Every structure is written in structure tokens, then in C-alpha cells.
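The protein record reproduced below.
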Amino acid sequence: MTGTTTGAGLAEIVNGQPPVQATVGQPAIDVTEMAKVWDQQPGAGQGIALQADPGSPIATFGAPGMAAPVQLVIDYLPAVAPGTIGPVTARGGDGGAYLSWSAPADEGSSAGISQYDVQVINGSGGVVRTLNTKETHATVTGLTNGTVYRAQIRAVNSTAAGAWTTSATFTPSSVPGGSQQYIEAVRQYQQARNELAQGDSTTVEHALASKTRATLIRASLHAEGADLIDLAVQSSQQGFNRTSVALTQDDVLVSFNAGTNQVTVHANVKETVRTTIEAGTANEETSDDSSVLARAFVFDAATGRTGLLRSQAAGADRPEGRAGEVNALPTGTSVPSLPDDAVPLPVDQNGYPVETAGARQSETVTAAVNRSAIATWAVNNAHSEPYDFDNDCANFASKALYRGGGVKMAVPPGALGALTKRQDPRWWYQSWPRRYLSSYSWSAAHNFYLHFVKTRGRASWVSSWANVQVGDLLLIDWHGNNVFGHVSVVSKKSSKSWKGVYYAQHQPTYQWRSLVDGMTAGKKKYPKMKVYAIRVNW
């Protein structure tokens, strides 16, 4: 709203949201949850519209029968320290430890958690290492093998620090044969994969020829090699090139589990990838994107079987906890058929884009949503915005819509928090006191679709690559079963080629990843994968 908003203008802003009704003279309407929403978006001109029932008789304040004047009461809840974090898991490694925990259910403030303080304590109670992080995991180095330690962690907001949560004791220990061989194996494994996918090596053995740790990665690379080589051949034929121009590993920790005879390398893998579309033509375009992926590389260390078993997201072996609940379909929800106008972006069997007849026709655009601001927020915050959930893609896309594009929340009447409210088809985020009680539609991909497209009609389908615009959303159906498992934000669109669609996201984190790169890589793992584009209009 503005200072000059008229009644008619106000009606447009309300957008048909169902009103909360109360009888004049009765107890006031509880607007606590709406007030929290306003605080999430200061200066956005949000407020309350009071409207009399046109069929009601005229009431005179102070006249007989009027028990009390109409009141608007908002109780102010001051910010406090955050609650305690979830249990701390500590895994001793070679000269360090990998720590993980869950965020507090009560953040204490609508501003959220600013950081986590981490301390490592020795057997005498002395603090030997301190650090802070915005993530819910940390790698601590510089510890002494064979020494017993504990870790304590607390959440901090802009008001105060919460109580410490302490881990069980852990003891760093050396790795049989030394850690360096595994660190080098991880780096060489990623280099060899890139050489095959880029076409620099045409066979697995050629890629391994220069690798000093080939024995540790040979079996795993042969298992992936055929797909990587085929990807390079297909890309070349399509005029698409993908080149890794920088690859580093930070916060590396190697640990050994004597019970399973397995060695795990934890590392933050930082990579800059350069993609080129329509290479060799007038429409050729090159774009760079940097990513940071927290990975765990697991090796079999048993004699005679030594080698890389798998590469997975760091923490993938932990219970999902709240993330599993939030990203699940609500109880009793059946998977609906998609409407007739839901057409996936056309690709061939390998995931390369196909231009359809009439694809360059313009799609409907409305001014109610600032789409360029959606993309700008996503790009600027992809690497800095903390993950609220292990599966954070829909939560990140919702924040981009709300904080960047000014898309209004749809808050159900009454107090929030009950499970029935979370399953409500509206769309809302509650950061305080309990952010995990936000609506499923805010934080789960398929529920996000159900709100914006299926039940509320706030978004329209975009049917072709040419018509995709910055600020649109990409919904990914991994298995071709009409269930959406991922959401991304279109962050850049080429001015030269209709194939030049790029996206930002969480899980994993990207700012400008090429959709061609994402589709072709995805199709190798999920042959039935489909990508749909939608445009949020209000």
C-alpha cells in the first residue's frame, strides 16, 4: 500500500484472499502472525484492510448494544537469545574433526541466526580451537591425534547468544597408510572425470595415465566412464562445451573407521565451470559459474580392495530429521495429473534443447512481480544465504520470490503452527519463533507447485526455451511421474541464443549454471527427467 492507495486499489492488492471475520464489539482479531510476515519484508507497504459487511445494519459507536469499541491489538514480542541447537555429531579425523548439528527450532528473533560459535575443548576444560560459521557443519583442524576432545556449539542472533550444546568426546587419529594419498586421489578423480566429460581424454585409461593415485580411483572411474565419454561426444555434436577452469578443495579432513575399514575424505569442493553454447556459430556465447559443494568421498581401505566406493553430499548418511518431514507430501495427498497446458521444456533423448514451432511467440508478462529482482536476489544470495533445510531448493526459491520479487505471502487466518496449517494450500514462512512450522508450500518442491499453479493459480506455464525469462522458476520432475522434486530460479537469459538459459539455486549451490549443462548431466542419471518452467504473476 501507499499513502494514496484508494479503496479500489486496495481491493486489487488483497487479491481475493479470504478475510478473517469478527463481529463488532467482540474480542479483537488476532493478527500476530500477519505482523510477523510484515517484519519479514520491511517497507513493503503491508497492512490490514478493515471492511464492513455490506449486509450489516449501520452501527453507531457508543449506542446501546455496543459492548465495546472495535480494537486493533498487536502485542510486541521482544527478541531474545536463540534456543539450543540440535545434537552435535563429532567425528574424529586425522588431526581434526568434522562437526554437524541442526539449527534451533526457536531462533529468538525474526532476523534469524547470524552465526554459530564453535569451540573445541580438551580434557582439562581448556578451549583449544574457536571458529564461527553460518552453516550447520564445520571442519576443525590443528588437533592432536590420540587426544580426547569435546566440542560445544551455540547459535547467535542479533540480540544474544544461546546456550551451548556439547558433543560426546571424540579422539582424532591417524589414517593407515597416511591421509595424503586419499586427498590426492580425490583431486585426481575429479580431474579425470572432467577430462572425460570435456573430451580431453577419450578412454578411462588415457585419463588415468598421468594420475599417481590411479589404483585408488580406477574401478570407480570405469563405472562412470562410458557415460562421461558419451556426454563429451554428444556435447561436441550439439556445439556445447563444458570446461572446468578452476578446481580446489578446502576444509579437508580425512578419517578412518576401523569397524568398516573405510576412509572418508570430507572437503568443500570449489569449482569454476565455463560453458559455451552454439560453439562456432554467430550465436556462440560463453558463461562462467562457480560452485561450492560439501562432499564426502568414501574409500574401501581393506587390503586387496582399496579404492573409491562413492562420492556423496557431506552429511548424506545422517538422518534427514526435519528436512524429510518438510519435503514429504502432506498425509493423504495424492499425486495429481498435470493440466493439459503443462508442457515440459522440449529436449531430445540426451537432454539437449529442441526449438518448437512458434517458440518465439511472447508469453504473458504482468507488472505485479519484479522478476529481475527475483533473479538478482538469487544470484547475490546463492552462496551467502544459509541453508535452512538439508533439502533447501524450494525454501531458497521462495525467499527469492518474496524478498527479491515482492511476491506476497498468503497467510491463513488465525494462529499458525498446527500441522493442518502447514498443509494449508497457502504460502507462508515463519522464521520466529519456529521456522520449521512454515507451510509445506514454502519449503517443499511439489507443494510449492501445488500452491502457485494447482490450487491458487498464481503462476502460468512457460512452454518453450525461447520464452523463458529471467525470474521464471524451473520445476524438475526427476522420474517422469508428475512429482516435482526440485526448484531453481532462472538467473540469466542469453541475448544471442534461445538455448542460453541459466539458473541459480540451493542444493547444490549455483549462480549461473547452464540449463543445457544441468539437463544433459541430469538425463544421464535420471533418463525420465523433465523440466517445466513457470512464471509467477502475483
